[in-house]
Write a structure and sequence with these properties.
- The structure is a single chain.
- This protein has 348 residues and is mainly β.
- It has one domain (26-324, 332-346): YVTN repeat-like/Quinoprotein amine dehydrogenase (Methylamine Dehydrogenase, Chain H, 7 Propeller).
- Helix content is 0%, strand content 48%.
- It is built from no helices and 29 strands.
- The protein has strands spanning 26-27, 38-45, 51-57, 62-67, 70-75, 80-85, 91-97, 102-107, 112-117, 123-128, 133-139, 144-149, 154-159, 164-170, 175-180, 186-190, 195-200, 205-211, 221-224, 229-234, 237-242, 248-253, 262-264, 269-274, 279-284, 292-298, 307-308, 315-319, 340-346.
- A five-stranded mixed β-sheet has the order 1-22-21-20-19, with no helix packed on it.
């Protein structure tokens, strides 16, 4: 199961955790950055409740978050929060469609992809998926929405025009984030198998697989165009993968408990929020073969997911505080009134 924060406390503060080396790839040495190119500059409050993936629609200037069985919205230009848009039981990923008029939301509460009117919140359609729909991606090449079913180990293909299922791809394992390069290739991280898998959407088949030796539980995955690389968020390391050969190039030590990877093409950076150590790993990704750690920016524990506004370079990280677990409990309850979205801004 992916690292859902619904009711989960992120406990313990760990230092740098270099990944174990293995033959065939480079493990980058630890770096102690002298200055941070980003800083927390604000926070936007919201109603309490668990959350998962965040998405930004740069055209509509909106931030979307699957939050407390609904969609939480922030109007980016004003900072106004809209706490409840539509219904999505145990929602995970929001995909804006039709210029932001419609939202496609994965909902594992009833194993569906829901189409929701972005203004009224009305459910327009609900398409059944395999068990545990989690991440999702709009694939411009095929015109389809791809849904990674975490528990079923398959990627469902759904036509957003007809709002009907159009097939599936059997992958196997616990599927996490989907990512696509600029040539139409689609990839998915497989958490329990420490893999990245390339998909052939047209053939509805797996094209290639790569084991990520030294990468523990890849969750977040992003394509860094300037570096021609995929970057996977592993526990304690970022896996840098050549997008052409699908070869693991190296592991870059980061914090613990990441669940997302974000890419800023303007600044040539990959940003990985690490919820257990409470920091944002900032990696330079400006050229092939040169992905490296720049800084670890203090944020807050539990801030392990987020989204980046490509217009401003600001990063939005949902977070909350948690009470100590009671006797016999593994996780403490969320501290009432503590949910908010941190705003992390670039200094240049």
């Amino acid at each position: 199961m992916r690292r859902l924060l619904i009711g989960a406390a992120m406990l313990g503060l760990c230092g740098f955790a270099p990944a174990a080396g293995s033959a065939g790839h480079h493990v980058e040495a630890k770096v102690a950055p002298s200055s941070a190119p980003y800083a927390v500059t604000g926070a936007i409050a919201g109603n309490d409740g668990g959350w998962d993936y965040a998405t930004i629609d740069p055209g509509a200037r909106r931030f979307y978050l699957s939050h407390a069985d609904s969609v939480f919205v922030i109007e980016l230009d004003t900072g106004k929060a809209i706490p409840h848009v539509g219904d999505a039981p145990h929602g995970h990923k929001v995909i804006p469609l039709d210029g932001g008029k419609v939202l496609a939301v994965t909902a594992s509460g009833d194993n569906s992809l829901r189409f929701i009117d972005a203004q009224s919140g009305a459910t327009l359609a609900s398409v059944p998926t395999a068990a545990g729909p989690d991440s999702a991606l709009y694939d411009p090449k095929s015109g389809m929405i791809l849904v990674a079913a975490h528990r079923a180990g398959e990627v469902d293909i759904i036509d957003p025009r007809t709002r009907k299922a159009a097939g599936s791809i059997a992958v196997g394992g616990a599927l996490e984030e989907l990512a696509a390069d600029r040539s139409g290739h689609v990839f998915v991280a497989v958490e329990d198998r420490n893999e990245v898998v390339e998909l052939d959407v047209a053939k509805k088949a797996v094209a290639r697989r790569t084991k990520l030796a030294g990468c523990d539980g890849p969750t977040g995955l992003v394509y860094a165009a300037r570096a021609h690389a995929l970057v996977g968020a592993c526990d304690g390391a970022a896996a840098v993968i050549d997008s052409k050969s699908l070869k693991l190039e190296k592991l870059v030590p980061i914090g613990k408990g990441p669940d997302a990877a974000l890419y800023d093409d303007v600044r040539g950076t990959v940003l990985i929020p690490c919820g257990q150590t409470g920091d944002l790993a900032v990696l330079s990704a400006r050229a092939p073969g040169k992905v490296s750690l720049i800084a670890r920016v203090p944020t807050e524990k539990s801030a392990r997911l987020g989204a980046l506004d490509p217009r401003t370079g600001k990063v939005y990280l949902p977070t909350a505080r948690f009470l100590p677990p009671a006797a016999g409990q593994r996780r403490g309850a969320m501290e009432p009134g503590s949910f908010r979205v941190l705003v992390v801004s670039p200094k240049s």
